[in-house]
Specification:
This protein has 430 residues and is of the alpha/beta class. It contains 13 helices and 15 strands. The strands form four sheets. The protein has a seven-stranded mixed sheet with strand order 2-10-9-6-5-3-4, with helices on both faces.
Length: 430
């Protein structure tokens, strides 16, 4: 495609929430520090930031209960434990996720079984139904990049088979589908507030549910293994809530930041969605370029644009074309990337999964007597043919949450120039 165009401009990284950090976050942190009370349960001038965040986030998503934890991985681990998933159990999960999703399954002693995707890059309900067995205890949907798949259909299947449904919404905070917020469709949902996420405090996570029983179990597990009474004292006489705790509580500092960020979430998502939909409209003018299916574009989380081409060679050429036509990014960003380079987001790119490793390096969950029925499960490339095909033909463009008018023009110009240089035919408007 030649050398970099003179119109090149450096774009911000795709870390959505941090671009909206301001004096409000500074004041929130300062308030907690001055109160000398950073711990979530008590302090000399306790501010109740975590309790307030939990209520505000539960109200935003539209569920009864929210539990704030230290990070998204902890949220997954606690939620899976609360649903009683362990050795002898199978968890169905799509092959397009982040490594933390499948890692939490393995650390629980359960067996992950991969499900193929549909045109939205989400779990395909037809393949899900084929793979449900008597061992299946949990299904995890993962709306990567803010695009919600056929979650209502998956929820219906889970209900029919009496299987738990967990939504891993780490990459989709603020997204919705026909008025229903992501994270409100399953038995439980989890969110992450790590620096790459739509709102952030650097780290942090949340678990949401409408179930009182599941909420109590998550509360116990995230703390010391026991629930507490209204006075804050641990309850030792309820056997159902005598568990093991992992001490993954959210701090008051984290909660204070997130309360401010939550008020900015709709603006952040709306800005990304607007740019993404404009680029989709531009690409729709040309033959030979598909984009990821989004059932409700008005509810799209907006973070990633996926462009699908006829073959891998064309996809790589388009990626290089965007770069040579002016799309550059600060160090640490991804503008643009071929999906084969998307690392631990793809099942077959995870050596620990492909090679069935344990957290300690020996005696993996696949070797346990309770799981011997899964000894022949494979996680090599070829296990999910639909996803494998998409991966080879797809380019991702990450949408920054705060772009100047000049940056938006450079992006659109690079997309249009690349389409024309690659001789994609323009579609008739008739």
């Amino acid at each position: 495609m030649g050398t970099l165009t003179k119109n090149a401009i450096e774009l911000p990284q795709e870390w959505p929430g941090i671009h909206y950090f301001g004096e409000e976050e500074v004041k929130a942190v300062t308030r907690v520090i001055r109160a000398q009370s950073p711990f979530r349960f008590y302090g000399p001038d306790f501010q109740h930031e975590t309790e307030k965040f939990e209520q505000e986030f539960a109200d935003y998503i539209g569920v009864r209960h929210c539990l704030a934890v230290s990070h998204g991985t902890a949220a997954l681990q606690v939620a899976i434990a609360a649903m009683g998933v362990g050795p002898g159990d199978e968890v169905l999960v799509p092959g397009y996720f982040w490594v933390s999703t499948v890692g939490a399954i393995v650390r629980s002693g359960a067996i992950p079984r991969l499900v193929d995707v549909d045109a939205s890059f989400n779990m395909d309900p037809k393949d899900l139904e084929k793979k449900i067995s008597s061992r299946t205890k949990l299904v995890i949907m993962v709306p990567m990049g803010g695009v919600i798949g056929q979650v209502a259909k998956v929820a219906e299947i889970c209900k029919k088979h009496r299987i738990y449904l967990l939504e891993d919404c780490a990459q989709s905070n603020g997204a919705s589908q026909f008025g229903t917020m992501v994270g409100s469709n399953g038995d439980m949902s989890i969110f992450s507030f790590q620096i790459n996420k739509n709102i952030t405090a650097g780290e942090g996570g949340a678990i949401l549910t409408n179930s009182e029983e599941l909420f109590k179990k998550t509360y116990a597990i995230h703390d010391l293994g026991y629930i507490k009474d209204k006075e804050g004292d641990m309850v030792f006489d309820q056997p159902d809530y005598q568990l093991w705790g992992i001490g993954c509580r959210m701090s008051e500092v984290t909660s204070a930041i997130l309360r401010v960020q939550l008020r900015k979430l709709d603006t952040i998502v709306s800005n990304m969605r607007s740019v993404k939909n404009q680029l989709k409209e531009l690409l729709a003018e040309y033959e030979g370029i598909e984009t990821r299916y989004v059932a409700d574009p008005d509810g799209d989380g907006g973070t990633f644009l996926k462009m699908i081409f006829k073959d891998s060679e064309t996809a790589f050429q388009f990626k290089e074309g965007l770069i040579s036509n002016g799309i550059t990014v600060k160090k640490g960003g991804f503008y643009p990337i071929h999906m084969t380079e998307w690392g631990l987001h793809i099942y077959s790119n995870i050596p620990a999964l492909v090679n069935k490793k344990s957290i300690c390096g020996h005696h993996s969950v696949w070797e346990m007597k309770e799981n011997e029925w899964a000894k022949d499960y494979s996680y090599d490339e070829g296990t999910l043919p639909v996803l494998d095909d998409y991966v080879q033909r797809t380019v991702l463009f990450c949408i920054a949450s705060k772009l100047t008018d000049e940056q938006k023009l450079v992006i659109k110009d690079a997309f249009r120039k690349t389409c024309e240089q690659m001789n994609f035919n323009k579609l008739s408007k008739n």
